[in-house]
Amino acid sequence: MKQLVDTRKIVDKWRNLEKSLNDASELLTLAVEDNSLLTGVQTEIDQVSSLLEQMEFEMAFSGRYDDRNAILAIHAGAGGTESQDWTDMLLRMFLRWAEKRSYKTEILDLSPGEEAGIKSVVISVAGDHAFGYLRSEHGVHRLVRLSPFNADHARHTSFALVEVIPEAQTNVDVTVLPEDIKIEVYRSSGPGGQHMQKSSTAVRITHLPSGIVVASQGERSQLQNKNIAMKILEARLFEKELERQAEEKAKLKGTRIEAGWGNQIRSYVLHPYKMVKDHRTDFQSGNPDAVLNGDLDEFITAFLRSGIGRENE
Fold first, then answer.
1. What is the spatial distance between Cα 133 and Cα 310, in angstroms, rounded to a whole number?
2. What pLDDT, in 10s, does the model give residues 263-274?
């Protein structure tokens, strides 16, 4: 029923566009005889052009899971504190971007760095086509800057891996059997006060058939952490199934490039010059401060318009 409703909305939009084109054509015919109508014709054409451009962009959301919420994970690369601080900066960037779009975000799991920053973090992003937008961010993000963590302030390059997974629908995309998981509870090592330190509220779940291990320790309740860990596990299992399907397609269509540590998708340069460049689309911005403050829409739009990644769907 949801698919039917969504499809009707799309069909209605195109039919409205068809009607607008017919109206513009009729108005143009009348304007040939009455020049005073030319201004109205131009206004109608501008409106139709704007609507067509918007609908062409919406066609980029043709993926099977583009309309879903997203699970976004960020992992610090090699480099210790530098990369962990870069991971923290990326988390802030994505949270600001989501806030500007009025998306709902929730930090599901976070491992703080030893001195500063974050080792890894998992967040959920809920909103219209959240995965459709954020899939453009999947891959390695590279930062070049003067290090704030050493006395010499030498130039330093940091890496972080961003993973974006469509949120799984329980009992639709994946089914987790009770006998297939092992649940362990332990004391949280993160902040949260005496309650979290003295009680075993953190939860670790191991999926025995796949070996996938997930954990959550951010909530004060063991039940809440268990629910969050299950949500992450379902998304990970869904991702594994999508990878299996992609591998089957690759056997028929040839090899494909994985988004891995050796394949940076975007560079953020703060020194010796300022620039953010996406290496897939060649789109770039000379204002990295704005980008790191959540102004990602131009990069996302360039990626979606390029059609990159659609060949494997």
1. 13
2. 789 999 999 999
